[in-house]
Amino acid sequence: APPSHLTLLGQQYPTDSITNISPTIISKLPLRLHTQPFHPLNTLRTLIESHFPDYAHLSSFSPLVTPYKNFDELSFPTDHPGRSVADSYYVNKDLMLRTHTSAHEIDVFRSGKTKWLLTADVYRRDEIDGSHYPVFHQMEGARIFSSDASGMKEVEEDNARLSQHLSQSNILIEDILHITPTNPAQPSHDPRHSELVAVNLKLSLNSLLLHLFAGVAGASKEEPLRVRWIEAYFPFTSPSYEVEVFFRGKWLEILGCGVVGQATLDRADVPHKMGWAFGLGLERISMILNSIPDIRLFWSTDPRFLSQFSNTDRKISTFKPYSKYPSCFKDVSFWLPLGEDNKKIHENDLCDLVRDVAGDLVEDVKMIDSFRHPKNNRTSLCYRINYRSMDKSLSNEETNALHSGVVSRLQDQFRVEIR
Ligand code: PHE
């Protein structure tokens, strides 16, 4: 039977029927990589903070929040998929691990701050591969102005200053219209004011990206760094945008942003303000800036990883892989329990199970086959689990032991029949 209580960050919390936070996840709660001296995520945080010197810099908010704060207060609809136990970690029905730093927007606005950055660990149940990890780090940034003429004058002056500063750079920015029928200004906003604020958001972030990426490989004269703005949707901003950076032949999403929903500011007791907010993923940016090939490396305690980032003279160090150890894949095929075919095992449940057994020794998990037996209607699945250590060579015995641990947990937890 599952425990009746969990101890999280030194406090006890009751569990219930939806508790799904696993031991692996619990062990990450105290680590707070974004505050560890010399850690690349800490270095990146301070680098971004230094670009916004007159903003409040916050980084000690607890990851435990109510679903109300994480979703409802930000106008997420009641049927939003992010709320499901398949996608988010719940301590119990009243407490969860934040899925984004936006969960703190209202508290920070209510405290009276008008320019701020907030960095934190966030948690989402996900697949296993080189760029997904169930814990990652986001930085939320926001700036709000008085929505009267004096506030809008402040925005205009800042826009003029920023455009001047951005006029020469070797970053190629693909731009879009700020306000469109599908990405509208909010009903309570004068569209001209919304446009000014959206321009301020875009200039502020382009200036940050220039600061971060200028001089980095791929941003040379011959091959400028490519950044693109695309229309997006978030329940708590409008208009909304996503920013992507072209890296190794692919567009990588690095941040979401938009004009802050007036409902957010009303709930924070600052109804006479308007402004913008963004949320950026620190791992994605660090993987590009520091050439870090696998997201698990951020959790490594290997001195061969950490020592590469202890050079205080250089803002950004390029990671030199110390060798890739051989990988070893093992397949597991099983029949789903009879009569349960329509409530199939969710892939995220399987991935949490694999992480609980193998931790960071698992590199990726993929379904390679699925079929239904025509006669008895049973469903068979086959998963391929790729094991690889970042720090050493795994012996055959070690890999076999990990895999048989996975297989027996699958039988115990999901009642599957191994083929
Ligand atoms: N919280 C959003 C996410 O995690 C990003 C975001 C932040 C979007 C602030 C708009 C404004 O995807």
TrEMBL record:
Q: Which GO terms describe its biological process?
A: phenylalanyl-tRNA aminoacylation
Q: Which UniProt keywords apply?
A: Aminoacyl-tRNA synthetase, ATP-binding, Ligase, Mitochondrion, Nucleotide-binding, Protein biosynthesis, Transit peptide
Classify the source by domain of life. Eukaryota
Q: Which reaction does it catalyse?
A: tRNA(Phe) + L-phenylalanine + ATP = L-phenylalanyl-tRNA(Phe) + AMP + diphosphate + H(+)
Task: Name the Enzyme Commission number(s) assigned to this protein.
Answer: 6.1.1.20
Domain FDX-ACB, by residue range, is 323-419
Record has DNA-binding as a keyword: no
Broad class of where this protein is predominantly found: mitochondrion
The molecular function terms in GO held by this entry are:
ATP binding; phenylalanine-tRNA ligase activity; tRNA binding
Describe its function.
Answer: Is responsible for the charging of tRNA(Phe) with phenylalanine in mitochondrial translation.
Q: Which PANTHER family does the record associate with it?
A: PHENYLALANINE--TRNA LIGASE, MITOCHONDRIAL (PTHR11538:SF41), PHENYLALANYL-TRNA SYNTHETASE (PTHR11538)
Q: What is this protein called?
A: Phenylalanine--tRNA ligase, mitochondrial
Species in which this protein is naturally found: Piloderma croceum (strain F 1598)
